[in-house]
Amino acid sequence: MPSPLPRDPIAQARDQWISHGWAAEADSMAAITALMRSASIFLQRADAILKPHGLTFARFEVLALLGFSKRGSLPMNQASRLLQVHATSLTNSVDRLEATGMVRRVQHPTDGRTRLLELTTKGKGVLIDARQDLNVQLFSNSGMPEADAKDLSQILSRFRHSQGDFL
Amino acid sequence: MPSPLPRDPIAQARDQWISHGWAAEADSMAAITALMRSASIFLQRADAILKPHGLTFARFEVLALLGFSKRGSLPMNQASRLLQVHATSLTNSVDRLEATGMVRRVQHPTDGRTRLLELTTKGKGVLIDARQDLNVQLFSNSGMPEADAKDLSQILSRFRHSQGDFL
Fold it and tell me: ipTM, 2 decimals?
């Protein structure tokens, strides 16, 4: 992270928006820009914590999803839906995870047309260690008070629902 | 966007976190994951709106920043700080913007060691049209009520301040 800016650049952009005659859109522009900027701060922190484990946050999410599934495996298309990532992005993540021996693609036992994604023993171990580091270094120490985290979840849950993220 | 999921996957992950004994980290994990997922929804929408203008949201932000600067130009390192993006990411964006004639790199008039980034006439025109589309299609129609947008801005402003984003 570079040194702090003397003024919040998003507050400055909001002022510019208002002075250019787009006052009606200024708060929404500021909120959306702040959301993207904050996500990028968290993603940089998460990726830095996960790098020693050979993971990015996107690849960690794949391992975590498989780890929570009943059989430790899921069809690719279901993983893509649950992670809300495009099939090509998921394929990239899975290629990397397979190359480092953390997951493998296997045939579905009864449905010949479906390929399952399965956590390996190595993948299970990496998941446990990586999740421990994320819990300690990021989630226990996010820089966000508990009340703010709860409010944020509620606001974003309403938003994600409005966007068709879940029923 | 694929069809909505029957249950919120972040709420499911939060339940899993609690049942695995990480209750103290569950709310923070849910808030951070929701933040990244919501930012990705907004980024996909913004990129789709900007594609016909030959822009991504990252490149739009460069144009918007230059458009608000007093002289229509800024030193590269200052643009990098204000956009809080790494110098290499900014270089990528600027390379694409320069290739399509929207910005140019010029010599600073008095400081020979500094290169300025300057908006071209074409870049100014594209900025005006692209910003109009973002205002109408995204910021006026974000899917987030005004009160939520304001609360979100305040929560994220406190968070960004805590992370050294601005003084």
Answer: 0.91
